[in-house]
Specification:
There is one protein chain. By secondary structure, the chain is an alpha+beta fold. Helix content is 56%, strand content 12%. The chain has ten helices and seven strands. A hairpin with a 3-residue loop joins strand 2 and strand 3. Helix 5 packs across helix 7 and helix 5 packs across helix 8. The longest helix has 24 residues. The chain is globular and about 50 Å long.
Length: 282
């Protein structure tokens, strides 16, 4: 037995991509800043060989470049700096969001890697001129990971939706195979909001509790979230008729606050899981 242990003693454990941030800065960001397409392609091939135990991480890293270019096209279009955009651009964006959410779900117990991932992506967002959108992008991704992990802990068999369902049906997750979930995030609300949606029932939208800069609390009716809930119900009803299934839904608003969520991994705090369990298990 001792001989067998000695046999493997000198074997180096495969390095994971986001465990060495300094190396990523030197190799990857340098190639990126020079915008050399050939160098970037060669580097991706090299990383695929060197990090063959973490190919999903390589896909997330290099995929953000395509995402950032698509986001920049959309940003330019909205600001009147581009005449037209492809009708598939939203699917391009949601495809990458699916990839990174899936990856973070798998590495959520390795917080250092998650922190390094977000740090490198933020620097990339500056290179591609979309830094103004980065925090919103990160909050959206973290919100999806958080809700997925909560549903998993509650035994509700979560699945990520397809990029098409996300882009055109506003469905982020499925719980079992008949409950669609749309996720919103907010840095202003102080408590989670969960709205149940069914075809037959009217929407009962709760008041939202928020805090101001002086950390005073106020409750108010949020018409923006109410309208989004109505739109989600309409899309869900149309989709239910198309697939001939009786679908239910939840619109969930997650407070992006370290009181409830790890802001890099998306891991929910026990109090947040408990809150969800009291409502969703009904």
């Amino acid at each position: 037995m001792a001989e067998q242990e000695n046999k493997f003693e000198g074997i180096k454990k495969p390095e994971r991509l986001f465990s060495n941030y300094e190396r990523l800065e030197v190799d990857f960001l340098n190639a990126l800043e020079h915008q050399d397409e050939k160098d970037i392609c060669k580097l991706q091939e090299r990383f695929n060989c060197e990090f063959n135990e973490d190919l999903e991480g390589v896909k997330v890293l290099f995929g953000f470049r395509k995402y950032a270019l698509a986001e920049k096209r959309l940003l330019d279009f909205r600001q009147g700096q581009a005449e037209e955009i492809s009708s598939t651009i939203y699917k391009e964006l949601t495809e990458y969001e699916f990839t990174i959410v899936d990856y973070l779900i798998k590495i959520y117990k390795r917080p250092e890697e998650a922190r390094n991932l977000w740090s490198i992506l933020e620097k990339m967002s500056k290179v591609y001129g979309i830094h103004s959108r980065f925090e919103q992008f990160k909050r959206g991704v973290i919100g999806q990971v958080t809700v997925y992990k909560i549903l998993e802990k509650l035994g509700r068999k979560p699945q990520l939706s397809s990029p098409e369902e996300d882009a055109y049906r506003a469905i982020d997750l499925w719980s079992y195979d008949d409950t669609a979930v749309q996720i919103k995030t907010s840095i202003h609300i102080t408590e989670p909001v969960i709205i149940g949606i069914s075809e037959a029932e009217e929407i009962a939208f709760p008041v939202v509790r928020v805090k101001d800069e002086q950390k005073n609390y106020e409750e108010f009716y949020n018409s923006k979230f109410f309208q989004e809930t109505r739109r989600f119900k309409t899309k869900l009803n149309k989709y239910a008729h198309k697939v001939h299934k009786n679908l239910k839904g939840y619109l969930i608003i997650v407070p992006i606050d370290e009181k409830y969520v790890d802001l890099d991994t998306g891991e929910p705090k026990p109090s947040l899981v408990e809150f969800f369990g009291k409502i969703i298990s009904r």
